[in-house]
Amino acid sequence: MDHAADAHRTDLMTITRFVLNEQSKYPESRGDFSILLNHIVLGCKFVCSVVNKAGLAKLIGLAGETNVQGEEQKKLDVLSNEVFIKALVSSGRTCILVSEEDEEATFVEPSRRGRYCVVFDPLDGSSNIDCGVSIGTIFGIYMVKDDHEPTLDDVLQPGKNMLAAGYCMYGSSCTFVLSTGSGVNGFTLDPSLGEFILTHPDIKIPKKGKIYSVNEGNVRNWDGPTAKYVEKCKFPQDGSSAKSLRYIGSMVADVHRTLLYGGIFLYPADKKSPNGKLRVLYEVFPMSFLMEQAGGQAFTGKQRALDLVPTKIHERSPIFLGSYDEVEEIKALYAAEEKKA
Ligand SMILES: O=P(O)(O)OC[C@H]1O[C@](O)(COP(=O)(O)O)[C@@H](O)[C@@H]1O
Ligand SMILES: [Mg+2]
Ligand SMILES: [Mg+2]
């Protein structure tokens, strides 16, 4: 018998066991949060299986509708949204759902209601669907403040009030990254078992990075600090080597690489889009939460991203997130600009 291999096997940690272990730290917990997370994981497994078959099943292509941001919806966006709404409502633990694909928030009917609000982007990076490049799902979880009738104010809260956040990336493997507020852990789906296994325990983002990630096609519309930072990445004046540019165009994939390898991901404001492109509740907040939990930073150009208080569910914000030192540089450039003004 190979004892080393056997020991390795007994170390296997499924996401279900991981979440139950976390729950046992709170003896007063009734398990509601674990049930909710299990349903989110189920939704991700479902979307993963559909995404994997997309090319074969001819599921890709336009559904002939536009979403609230006026963007074309793909069939997979519609499907993923339906899957998540079903999974979340059937958990019996949610009361308000905010999805990128729905103009209005969904208020769960009282008989199926729980205490959690979930904000999510069911399929992020949809422009990459047709060419089979990595896409993902992003989510954040809030809890309703008191015993009251849930209102939109329960989700229009700063990101620092989130209880948990995460994403699932449908890439060369299916990876689920989660933070419940005490570090970040990554799980990889074993398709033969149908289980997510802990493969990236306690992820810490490197303090510095050699990669910057931005849509450089927008360069002519950038503000001074963004343009200066990117210029420094390409032509450093301190004798260091130039940074590499990597940009996939799926936030989940670009942020995942940034989290593991270090560096910076930016979607800044520009003259055409003064609020940037990415949505505060279900893109900026969850990714900022994960970055901070992994030891990095997230900044809007004006403030710590997680301090932002959204006033609308589909609000947008510029975002700079990643390695601590890289974001520190961006912050210094914005501070210098403000001093000049
Ligand atoms: O094509 P651009 O302008 O670079 O934008 C890319 C960004 O847009 C997004 O695709 C928006 O997400 P959706 O696909 O959910 O609308 C992000 O994933 C990505 O970071
Ligand atoms: Mg998105
Ligand atoms: Mg989307």
Question: How would you characterize the overall build of this protein?
Answer:
This protein is an alpha+beta fold and 341 residues long. The model is unreliable at 1-5 (pLDDT under 50). It has helices spanning 3-10, 15-24, 32-57, 75-90, 224-234, 251-261, 280-293, 324-340; strands at 62-66, 72-74, 94-99, 106-107, 116-124, 135-143, 164-170, 174-179, 185-190, 195-200, 211-213, 244-245, 264-267, 297-299, 319-322. The strands form 3 sheets. An 8-stranded mixed β-sheet has the order 4-3-5-6-7-8-9-10, sandwiched between helices. Strands 12-11-13-15-14 form a 5-stranded mixed β-sheet, with helices on both faces. Strands 1-2 form a two-stranded antiparallel sheet. It has 2 domains: 3-200, Fructose-1,6-Bisphosphatase, Chain A, domain 1, CATH 3.30.540; 211-340, D-Maltodextrin-Binding Protein, domain 2 (3-Layer(aba) Sandwich). 33% of the residues lie in helices and 22% in strands. Bound molecules: 1,6-di-O-phosphono-beta-D-fructofuranose and magnesium ion (2 copies). 1,6-di-O-phosphono-beta-D-fructofuranose (FBP) is lined by residues 71, 100, 121, 124-127, 215, 249-251, 267, 277.
Summary tags:
5-stranded mixed β-sheet; 15 strands; FBPtase; D-Maltodextrin-Binding Protein, domain 2; 8-stranded mixed β-sheet; 341 residues; 22% strand; binds magnesium ion; 2 domains; binds 1,6-di-O-phosphono-beta-D-fructofuranose; Fructose-1,6-Bisphosphatase, Chain A, domain 1; alpha+beta
